[in-house]
């Protein structure tokens, strides 16, 4: 058990609930551009590459912040990190909702990415220090399952709300919710006597994590697997399904919701399977291999409605194999450095997405023939097929990295590594 067990269990639960709530909002912002892609292109008169950059700005900042967030939660603690993260995300969401131009929208999206970037690492730190290590993957999976309420809300519900009250109003409301959550975190999270790293030696701890060869396979697995997942579901899925498969925006957004529901269920399922088997590596290899293969199904031709829904569900379910990377990173590094370890591995997820989202758009812009509808560019099926191939190759690279994961048998082995 964690040495933080002297914190009353009710406060452990309150702290974890608040961290998960912040993580829910991060998933909403992550997936939202897919449902309102046409609205954003029409509002700011932007190309696919610019739309990709607007969506990926979230991932740029998120990527840069993962290691600093790991250091901050290991030294300053989760409460202050979540409070300031909530304030920053709230202000960013308000700015995005009020943005008069593409540049202002970019600034708002940047602040959103900065603010929500702390939620996941804070959640991992709370689970690592307050709960039994044998339940780590299961609890992380449960947290992801709950957090995906945000991504589900960013699918069909957001598409409907955007038509009913406008996408700007939605982001103004979400901004207010972020500020309220920051206030609750200020009074609802207890820090003492939580396990914390020594503030005077954090640089040495970070070097220890980064110089540990067993940490890096999870980083590269996430770079390809999570990068492909977030690039597609977080932005390009709805435009692809509407322009290539002829779906309405509501139906296409429903596919994205199904995708995230599959991912959420997979995160909870594979965490339970891994903890029960007492193994990490074979679960990651098997599930991630299926994920890499499923991308190619999109290129096999038109699918019936039940087939496209089933494929989205299966892709989401198998995408969740990469979520075991955080348990693997924690278990090959000291518990006091768990924030830095999980933060480093998490960089791969968002670095991959930040590269692949605009690269997908750039690949499509190369073949664009000049067609425009309601201010948004129209692309051919061949243009989208090139983007899908890009994501399939990225997923394949991520799967290859899982073969280098160090098996921990669901326990901390940092003391056994040379």
TrEMBL record:
It is found in: Cell membrane. It is a multi-pass membrane protein. PROSITE patterns: MFS (PS50850). Signal peptide: none annotated. Pfam families: MFS_1. It comes from the Bacteria. Keywords: Cell membrane, Membrane, Transmembrane, Transmembrane helix. InterPro entries: MFS, MFS_dom, MFS_Efflux_Transporters, MFS_trans_sf. Residues 15-409 form the Major facilitator superfamily (MFS) profile domain. Its main location: membrane. GO terms for molecular function: transmembrane transporter activity. One of its GO terms (cellular component) is plasma membrane. This is MFS transporter.
